[in-house]
Specification:
single chain, mainly alpha, 9 helices, 64% helix
Amino acid sequence: MFVEKASLMQNRAYWQFFREGKEISVSFGIDPISDAFIDLEFVGPSVEARDALLITLRLFLQDNDCISLRNLAKLSVIDHGLSSEWHQEFPSLRDTANDLLNESLEVVAKQIGMSKLTAHDVLHTFLYGEIAHMNSEKRKLYQCWKGLSVFPLLEFSFTATVASFLCVVSNTAELAASELARAHV
């Protein structure tokens, strides 16, 4: 199922945005008096493309889904005849995902008046505050962020995190497909 869902995501418009060589960006000006960002604008995949992709992406994040990276790690420990390649590469991919999600977003945090903010915080606030599985606390925070003039910085951070996480999922799917082919499944 992991390979199937990863393939589904790779065919979505969101992923196609990046495969076409397009880049995400934030344009802005700086107020000469306050040195604050002004007139911020985010350019990236459409909201519709984002929402369609994230309904599937969350399966790789949530532990209650069998294809989450954490659940794959648990299955890897059991070792049902997995290759040495899997045991070498999968932990590295999972570490990459964790490092990505734990990345500190200090510049963005400063702009929104927070002392600490990680890519995980932004991803989960967008995902559970706006897109799927409404969480009242995340919803309130998302609505607060959306009202900020620097919201495009958060959109940029979110989109960059999702794109990087998609690469990890894609690489893990390739590894899993090789593993399945080796096992003749």
